[in-house]
Amino acid sequence: MTASGDWDVQVLREFFETEDIHRILATPANKHFKDSWRWLGDIRGIYSVKQGYQLLTSGEANASYTGPFSAWSKLWSLPVPPRTKHLLWRCARDILPVRENLKLKHVWIGGGCPLCSAPYESSSHLFGECWYAKDLWCQTDILQGLSIQHVMQSILSLSSTTKAVEMAAVFYVIWTTRNNLVWQNTAPSIVRMRNHVSHLQNLWAEAYSKQPRGLTQADTEVAWEPPNSGKLKCNVDAALFTSGAGFGAVVRDHMGRFVAARGGRFDGIQDPFMAETIAVREALSWLKTLHHRSFIIESDCLNFCNAFNSCFSEFSYVGTIIAQCRVLASDIGDVTVCHIRRSSNHVAHALARATGSMSGSQVWENIPPACISKLFHH
Ligand SMILES: [Zn+2]
Question: Are residues 84 and 143 in the same domain?
């Protein structure tokens, strides 16, 4: 590395292949950071027991499971309670204690389907073929000759989660009804089951609606606000492309008037958090040259804003960039970093997207570039 802490391209060219040089140049470096151990599974480089456990269990699942189901991450991110996900997981791996599975384990308790008295109870029968299942699905042949794991796979592969949440409710109601019958001898009622399915769907929709679901009505209505007089506000955003990332930084004054903007590309970056962080660094190193000492930086990346404003340093690649941002900010003088919603950041977003067709980094002063000019009404 050079004395200033950057990669020495001359040296790299002598020692490495071209494609490796690109990878090395895309690796952030900071000479103020000493070598130390990092946890690769976490973007902040911090180890947690939860991640260690996930790594171990996913390795085990990959080693032993070869069924038709593979939408695991979709399954675990469904907006339904954990125990319902756990039920879906057991069904996807076909390890629910239905009678055909018990038979495979040499636990033969006899009897077929507890609900409809079909001669056998497999997960495909219980959740797909059984008369009760057909009624709840409002469909006579959900399986279409395949297994219930195939059905789960195709439902979870849909872009909308509505159908998957309905599936989760149907599975949950069938499984509890079946268990109540087997263990407590409670007679099943199809009307009660139907009501239970729609009750769960409403309950979960309400309980999990706080999670962001793309642009909602309320989100689009949040307006950008100009800074107080004497301050300048700089909105920053990043955009990911197939070959790397782009950034946009737009400075406006207390009247909301365009002051200046900068946009550009950086290659080799594929991680959104990293891209947003580099975008702010690029913005700050440019703002430093503008001869103004008081800025509000707005980013829609909550991870970045929290990390920047935190008193802890993160020992990771992204942490080195955040440290650089802090140094640049204190060089400038009075810089505050605030989180805003995406909808209030659309000027920076539009500029970041437009860098996809730009060759190098560009700066505009007084007159906004064409790609964002229609967003200024004045
Ligand atoms: Zn049945």
Answer: yes
- Confidence (pTM): 0.50
Ligand 1 centroid distance, CA of 115 (Å)? 5
Task: Enter the tokens of residue 66.
Answer: 């070869």
Q: How far apart are CA 51 and CA 44, in angstroms?
A: 12
Q: What is the 88 CA–ligand 1 centroid distance (Å)?
A: 18
Question: What pLDDT is recorded for position 114?
Answer: 92
Instruction: Enter the tokens of residue 64.
Output: 């032993």
User: Residue 288 to residues 92, 261, 265, 281, 363: CA-CA distances in angstroms?
Assistant: 55, 13, 19, 11, 14
**Ligand 1 (ion): which residues have CB within 5 A?**
113, 115-116, 118, 130
Same domain, 228 and 197: no
Amino acid letter for position 357? S
Residue 362: its H or E element: strand 362-365
Structural domain containing residue 230 = 224-373
Question: Does 280 lie in the same domain as 247?
Answer: yes
Task: Say if 3 falls within a structural domain.
Answer: no
**d(C-alpha 126, C-alpha 113), whole Å:** 7
Distance separating alpha carbons of residues 84 and 166, to the nearest angstrom: 12
Distance between CA 73 and CA 55 in Å, rounded?
A: 13
122 Cα–ligand 1 center, Å? 9
Within 10 angstroms of residue 239's Cβ, the number of other Cβ atoms is: 23
pLDDT tens track for 75-99: 999 999 989 999 999 999 988 989 8
| 178-227: pLDDT as tens digits | 999 998 999 999 999 999 999 999 999 988 876 454 444 444 456 889 99
Rounded Cα distance between 287 and 277, Å, is 15
